[in-house]
User: Fold this.
Amino acid sequence: MKKTLLFLSAVVLLSGCNKDEANYYPQMKNFAYLYQFEALPGKVKSTHQTLFAEDGEQLFEVNADFDKQGCLQHVKSVDKEGKVIEVSRNGDQLTGSENGQNVVVTLDKHCTMVKKVTPTLTVDISYNPQGLVEKLSSPNTDVAFNLAYNSAGEMSVLSITKAGEEVSRATAERSSDVKKISDVVTTVKSNNQTKIVSNTCKYKNDIPYYCDIVTTDNEGKVLAKQHGNIEVVYY
Assistant:
């Protein structure tokens, strides 16, 4: 549910990964959520993912690199407004800049993100028993992001609360075909409005390599069409 549940959903050009071992690095889904890229199974070395509007305009681009233990080494993303997030690993920290501000993300010995600090905001990150991000909160604001997952560790609910009251809720319904790991329909309810985001992908060796993203209103009217791409290199 990256980018507030729009799931930057994209695609992979494979280069030698054993898909019989379709497991994820322990922290892959957490990094993917916080840095807005599609989580991929296998021993990922690097991934380049892009999101485009129907007319071909590039909306988002992200590059991420991992070590052989699955710890994020470097990530850089750029959105259509030119906002840039770029951090690199330095020991037990990810350091760099986020939208023009210095940022430090503290990691524990398992490469789990514990806290993010910028000059204007501190974000605390808590986890559920599955080891997945459960809550993002801050002493600087009364807004919190609350995440829930199914038994397979796939995000099923993202609830945004303000002063304890829910202001937005997104729920995800995944494909009944468990091999279609990125096919998902997400219903987002906010400000008495409902949007439905349908993510449908093409796969090679059970890994998505191209995805169409269609956003409609509650009446089925198409609001936006997008598509995504992923390039990935494996160890």
